[in-house]
Predict the 3D structure of the following.
Amino acid sequence: MILIADSGSTKTDWRLIDTAKQIHQFSTQGINPFFQTSEQIEQMLEAELIPQLKIHRSNPELEIFFYGAGCKLDDKKEIVKKALSGIFPGSEIIINSDLLGAARALCGRNAGIVAILGTGSNTCYYDGKEIVENRISTGYILGDEGSGAHIGKTFIQAYLNDELPLDLANRFFERFKLSKDDIIDAVYRKPLPNRFLASFSKFIYQNIKEQYIIDLVVECFNQFFDKYVCRYKKSKELKLSCTGSVAFYFSNILRAVASNKGVNIETIIETPIAGLTLYHLGE
């Protein structure tokens, strides 16, 4: 049996391939070892994943492939592995970055430029087997250009500085009822501020016909291409494939910006989990 997870900071998609090759799907909240301890992750999995799974937890034949945000560094991988080992003792557990998961889902065993645009952002050049070049993602405070957190942060900065068109600012307040002090508190004092900032991308998408919003998203994507994608030597000869909710829902703007930069986008999918499932089935 194989259990596959694709985890961002907001949501984790799970697929179980049983002994009859039947596929079962589940979801839990996101996991990110930069913001959560092993104990917190294990408690969340006990509450959200285990009630959905109908398998024996101590199963030496169970292989777990976890692809997650924040799982590039060994010490962060160990945080997630410790949590999963507490839930599934005796199982083989392999932890990889969400970026490798995206590459395997989007490109399979072919080379390409790969991007994640979800709560955060990340990119790489994938040679069909491994990631061979990665423009470092510096997180929602120092980077993550083009991501939901970056777009949300840019919008919130404009709101806090009274730079939004009045009608748009009023719509925002009517929708969320957040004072400026509430926003500052959520960003600087409460957990998972990146998820908080990214949560406004839905409102931004719902107002995408506003020229101010179009210009804001275009500028965020321009920064994404300039800082990351266009700095890969093969960015003009290899096609770009993208995954993540921001890439998926803002795909028209993303494709337009890519075209202006001379980049050819091949595929945009909302989540990598289906492609990862096929990859581990060997298809």
Q: What stands out?
A: The radius of gyration is 19 Å.
